[in-house]
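ok, trying the design again with the full structure, not the truncated one.
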């Protein structure tokens, strides 16, 4: 699946009103530190590092936001955004490329990585619609104040060093369409707060330290893409796995186990790519994979799958890449699929990898 250009997609998100709910505003306060955080810059830095690990029962890490009376904002929503972004800046302990050095003053729409657009419920109001701090190598955590970004549609922070957990306040982001937290240092259980995001279509949690079970409710959500590979999830895929309407789902490099569920045959309408590699799946491949008429990529390599390669694979008429290597399969490639492989190879489109090791 090709990733959309954030600038073009951002504007299209706000033009398509059907994806959005009404946004609300709230009065906010400007930024200051608690009395316990006042002191030398060295002490402040040390305190901030401590805040990465210690929270109270509300999830707060001690950051308080207050306002300078001299600041003037175009509207209350930008004032709220200022509060959220300043709290986040206080929660960053390392910004080696100075991506947030211009996060100063009331014009938040000029902050690096911050994108504004017309509010979906009121075109006369300018609001923060997206965050893109990809590949910034910033270290820190996500403060609860980010829940003030009520109009945000895109939140992209891949390839940084953010740690801790996803704030519970994210449940207020009712317009959030794309959430990309990949390649960071988030840990703990699956962030259930993403299940409370009604507009979410794209979820990317790959390359983190999440662990435990993935809630079965994830596969009931109306998502287009799920990337949760390269974590420490460990459980058996639930029976409702096949209810997911995704076009792409990547579960590789975890510890999923049990059978590859036969319910995946119900995903035939939308599914284009399914990657289950490097897990602990066992038993046989279900014959229902033949129902996946639109799948171009199917990868179940490096598991413990046994038995015959289903002859129904020949019915996967859109298949371009099939990888079942490093399992315990036996038999031969079904004749029809072998012909498809030769044809596709000639067109330099197909990578067939069969392994019985």
């Amino acid at each position: 699946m090709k990733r959309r250009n954030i600038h073009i997609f951002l504007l299209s998100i706000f033009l398509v009103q059907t994806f959005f709910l009404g946004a609300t505003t709230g009065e906010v306060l400007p930024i200051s530190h608690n009395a316990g955080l006042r002191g030398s810059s060295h002490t402040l830095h040390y305190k901030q590092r401590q805040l990465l690990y210690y929270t109270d029962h509300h999830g707060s890490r001690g950051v308080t936001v207050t306002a300078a009376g001299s600041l003037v904002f175009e509207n209350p929503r930008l004032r709220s955004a200022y509060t959220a972004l300043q709290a986040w800046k206080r929660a960053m302990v390392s910004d080696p490329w100075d991506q947030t050095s211009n996060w100063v003053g009331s014009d938040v729409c000029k902050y690096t990585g911050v994108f504004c657009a017309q509010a979906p419920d009121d075109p006369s109001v300018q609001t923060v619609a997206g965050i893109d701090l990809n590949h910034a190598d910033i270290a820190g955590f996500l403060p609860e104040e980010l829940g003030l970004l009520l109009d945000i549609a895109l939140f992209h922070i891949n390839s940084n060093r953010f740690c801790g957990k996803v704030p519970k306040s994210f449940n207020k982001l009712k317009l959030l369409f794309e959430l990309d937290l990949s390649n960071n240092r988030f840990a703990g259980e699956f962030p259930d707060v993403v299940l409370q995001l009604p507009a979410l279509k794209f979820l990317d949690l790959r390359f983190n330290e999440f662990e435990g079970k993935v809630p079965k409710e994830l596969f009931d959500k109306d998502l287009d893409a799920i990337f949760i590979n390269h974590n420490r999830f460990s459980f058996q895929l639930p029976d409702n796995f096949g209810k997911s309407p995704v076009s792409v789902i990547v579960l590789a490099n975890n510890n999923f186990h049990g059978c590859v569920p036969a319910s995946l045959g119900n995903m035939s309408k939308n599914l284009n790519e399914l990657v289950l590699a490097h897990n602990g799946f066992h038993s046989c491949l279900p014959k229902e994979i033949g129902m996946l008429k639109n799948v171009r990529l199917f990868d179940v390599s490096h598991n413990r799958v046994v038995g015959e390669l289903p002859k129904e694979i020949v019915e996967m008429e859109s298949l371009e890449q099939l990888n079942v290597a490093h399992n315990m399969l036996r038999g031969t490639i079904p004749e029809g699929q072998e012909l498809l492989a030769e044809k596709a190879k000639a067109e330099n489109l197909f990578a067939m990898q069969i392994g019985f090791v």
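Keeping the full-length input from now on. The first strand starts at residue 32 and ends at 33.
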